[in-house]
């Protein structure tokens, strides 16, 4: 491995920087990069080039061409630019290409050159034109900052939720700033600009002059400024060839460097690694690349070609016509292992494993050395970590082999970190492949997350690879395979040359009942593309009615929506469709629709019962449901109408309906009620008091209680109250009145159809034993004992029971024998029993 | 923890804790002090799962009953409405919110729909211009509430009426949702049996909902071996009879003043009907009850019992009873009588055929030799009458319904069996002597006597099946009849 560190360049005493090739580009560019507008998305994203951008001397025949390539140089899209002159290009966090036109209109394109949408940066920008523009990324999303011809700034911090903010004016600003950048502090976007020797910070409220601490004297102009990937650091390049590096808050200087080159650099970007103490910026001129940091010497590279720098989270990508390279600070683990003459545990372990492969006993020596220091765990961890930072699979393998070898000598080394690294590297190697062209480093991949990476594969329509990764990593279906299939399906529905049937079938074949796939989302997409029929076909596969029905309504397939809602059993959904239909259809059609859907009809009836009574009547009428109509009119007769005539009229309608319903009983009963109502009214007029709405029974009772026996009799006859009930009624009423005389008269009016026991009972209930006894004697033999007991004549009850020779009666009487008074009677019964048993 | 819920074969505390957790999560979403405005109907069910202390722990400081016009004053940050999704309640809420806006400091409004969010209600709130006033609009799927270690109820008062009178299957949908929740907690139930129209619908909805949930494969080992869905209208008889178990009696007698003698007479009549004596003519005890204007519910219950035990009454007998009732208690009850007819509780005999004796004999509904001290059969719960519903459950477990196909055809609605396939890893290998666990769901209500009968079966040494009981509502004959009564004024 002697040559392994050949491309390591020290910067100061503590850090190495290395540059290695990601891809050799054969994108066959027709023009020099310098003649194009260039935008490369971070995280190994795509590269956009606008050839022949708008020039002052307009040559009508040469239209600009927009080309999009993968990071490996594979063409993704190429289109003739037909819109206005473009000032700047940039990629959003969602990998959408933002093209800022001179008139302030921003056109948004997809990765494949598909036009998505456009928006304007406002009137002020339109009037003053765009002088310069930057696309920047914050935690809220991707923003656009504009410098207008009037030297004013306008920005939007999130193009997804466009809110334009016009920044304050810089007092006395006459010309364009020499350089500027967007900063992001305390979750707010700011603008830092340089005018001559002065720096100004614009926030949304004010413009303030700022001074970098410890800036070398003699600066009359700033030529270039650079903010780090995380907005934490700032670098300034002055016309004296001096570079100031500090915090973006401008509160602290980190270091400075004098490169003695006064020519303005083409690009300056930060090159740092998360959690590293090292700070460095990369400065590029036409043919020279310089890495400077907190060290007296810089690292210098010669650029053979026109090159472009792309800042990344943990380094800088540099691409040109023919190559694509990555420049970064060598990570600690790699440094420890590979540094010449390193005695770090990882380095020893790697050696041990190599010796082991050579079957040399040196393996044992190395291993012993590590173990004696108790550093084997650390060694394994180092090798695993270093493997992650290697770009070349053979190096990854050799480090992982060493880790695996070391693990054998450890009792309890948790396997997850090793397994996970193997998996991650497998994924990384797959996506770094030339054909895919996403050169993510391990740190970038972890920062981006697997979910976002999958999204990006989907964006590139690399569905099979995405699915393979999901399956390989065993991601839950809902987040993994299903989601990707759903995206695939959404793409599929846009293929307008394939018939609805074929698309629907293809989608269902592939998706089947895959959990987590939302057919309604796909259908919504199809509908969005104007393919309603396809959407309906897709919705057939949607099991969730809650999703299916609203979309059908949106597509104006209300009747289909209704039957789907009914199928689901979700009554709320049915109601929702019904109310929709009610507004959409005329009344006749609406009723007809209901008629064919009994379940919906009954629900709607319930709705009407509470909300629209009149409609309810119409519904019954339509269905010739006379029975319900009858009930409806009965309710009406009680509800609103106060006057008797109105109530009777309602009842007449009810009676008519019942006749139509062939419900003779209800019709007759209703007619009786009409009669009764009128009569009650009359009684109220003639006798005063309250009669209306009393039952027939209570009306008669009230009359008896009021001493109107004649009327009571008449009423009972008119309405044919059965004799038995009438006797009960009178008995109860007279007892209530305690009119014992009348009661006795009544009892003798004819033979009681209910016998005389009720008389006894009711007198006793009123605590009138005297009266009760009168009737007890008249009670028939079957109930005699009961009656005698009721009036407290235990002795006589015993006699009767003995006479009846009825065992049940004897027992009953015996149970009433209490205290000494009844002792004799009890005796008598016992004797009678004994006698009966003898026989 | 509620100890009484965890003694059974199935630990219903799991369900209780799950619903409590859901409630806490919702309350915590509305940060700060709160007042709850209750749909009065919900306070009972909520009391069973969350005491005031739980609410208090989550900064509920005030509780009001939902009423029109203004809300009472309360110095709280959040006002939360706990309501059923009903349009009339939305109107009240809107009134509350609108009158609130005009005075005092701004407060955050939220709605918790129980048990389901409703597009219809939200549309109404939108129409009333207050939808935007609510920060959180969520649903709280409190479908099945654990009452006891083996007992769950939806406490849905109107379920029977809605299903059988109004063809409104909302409560069936909730029942199906509740069963899905149970399955999420206790595993997929591999076999579903059912009898009745509603049972069929619930099973259909469950199968459909299962398709909707394909995403989350249930990996819980099934606790229930099977589910039996029973329509209340398959057995209209049982709730009409007076329950004679301890709990049943308390339930029956509570609030009703009757002399013991009269109670005895009533029982005698009931028993006569159930054993098939004199069911086809006017009963003089009922006649006397009407003449003495005994409580209407008692009368209706007896008349319905007679009708059910005779597969309907002769037209003449039916009309006589109806006329007597209308004359005595008032014409307005014609609506109630019609409701009872629609529900099949009171009806003219069709085709002059009385099927009840066949059902009674085949299912051995009437047992003459009942030992109430040491019962050997479920008929002890009604002193001779074995509840039809429970008999169906018993016969299903042994020897199976195939033996009673004929009777099943006489009883209303389809009977069916569905299987829900399980992944091999979750299939149960029953140990010898291990009982099966059946979840029996009464759609339209269950009585305490039926519960007692099922518990009796669960406890039998050689029974082979233990039951967990679920229902739309715990009820008795009186509350049931009352739910079907209609008072137009």
From TrEMBL, chain A:
Vps16 N-terminal domain span: 4-420
Keywords, comma-separated and alphabetical: Coiled coil, Endosome, Lysosome, Membrane, Protein transport, Transport
Listed GO MF terms: actin binding
Location of the Vps16 C-terminal domain: 517-835
Record's bilayer topology term: Peripheral membrane protein
Highest rank taxon of the organism: Eukaryota
Family annotation (Pfam families): Vps16_C, Vps16_N
Quaternary structure and partners: Core component of at least two putative endosomal tethering complexes, the homotypic fusion and vacuole protein sorting (HOPS) complex and the class C core vacuole/endosome tethering (CORVET) complex. Their common core is composed of the class C Vps proteins VPS11, VPS16, VPS18 and VPS33A, which in HOPS further associates with VPS39 and VPS41 and in CORVET with VPS8 and TGFBRAP1. Interacts with RAB5C. Interacts with STX17, MON1B. Associates with adapter protein complex 3 (AP-3) and clathrin:AP-3 complexes.
Similarity-based family: Belongs to the VPS16 family.
Function: Plays a role in vesicle-mediated protein trafficking to lysosomal compartments including the endocytic membrane transport and autophagic pathways. Believed to act as a core component of the putative HOPS and CORVET endosomal tethering complexes.
Protein name: Vacuolar protein sorting-associated protein 16 homolog
Species this protein is from: Neomonachus schauinslandi (Hawaiian monk seal)
Record gene name: VPS16
UniProtKB/TrEMBL annotation, chain B:
Domain of life: Eukaryota
GO BP, sorted A to Z: protein transport; vesicle-mediated transport
Membrane topology: Peripheral membrane protein
Keyword Cell membrane recorded: no
InterPro entries: Sec-1-like_dom1, Sec1-like, Sec1-like_dom2, Sec1-like_sf, VPS33_dom3b
Keyword terms of this UniProt record: Cytoplasmic vesicle, Endosome, Lysosome, Membrane, Protein transport, Transport
Membrane-spanning intervals of the chain: none
Gene3D superfamilies on file: 1.25.40.850, 3.40.50.1910, 3.40.50.2060
Location of the protein in the cell: Cytoplasmic vesicle, Autophagosome; Cytoplasmic vesicle, Clathrin-coated vesicle; Early endosome; Late endosome membrane
Any Gene Ontology CC annotation: clathrin-coated vesicle
Pfam families to which the protein is assigned, alphabetical: Sec1 (PF00995)
Keyword Protein transport belongs to the record: yes
Role played: Plays a role in vesicle-mediated protein trafficking to lysosomal compartments including the endocytic membrane transport and autophagic pathways. Believed to act as a core component of the putative HOPS and CORVET endosomal tethering complexes which are proposed to be involved in the Rab5-to-Rab7 endosome conversion probably implicating MON1A/B, and via binding SNAREs and SNARE complexes to mediate tethering and docking events during SNARE-mediated membrane fusion.
Family: Belongs to the STXBP/unc-18/SEC1 family.
Record protein name field: Vacuolar protein sorting-associated protein 33A
